[in-house]
């Protein structure tokens, strides 16, 4: 078992343990909440960033722009910076709200039978979630021209099994990323 396989197994074991600790309800709140927060941040970042750039930041940020940067941001650094600030603030506030909502559900794990079922379902959900995340990371990074990583990926039986035995995801990603024009 090479180092990449050890990292994959470690991530999966940590996910199973974490899923057992927080349970299904909290993991579902965390997952749905994070998706909602990132969607809201994406929707509101641009309009609020434009407003912030026009009314607060203005031309102040153009002095720290590094020389030799790409021309597509020429004249738009203030807006780019403000949009990043708005996105970060919305994400931070949204995740704080999601975390407080999630923490209010701790009592479920203390209910005798329901708590056990909740914890076991949490193991499944977090295990599946991290498996999909690891698959995506492996799928995306397999094309990187980094020799030591490519060798570790090729020599890892577990990584190769994940890439080969997750047919639906790999076919869909291949169709979407490579065959769409």
Automatic annotation (TrEMBL):
Coiled coil: none annotated. It is a multi-pass membrane protein. Keywords: Membrane, Transmembrane, Transmembrane helix. It comes from the Bacteria. Pfam families: Colicin_V (PF02674). It is found in: Membrane. GO terms for biological process: toxin biosynthetic process. This is Colicin V production protein. GO terms for cellular component: membrane. It comes from Weissella halotolerans DSM 20190.
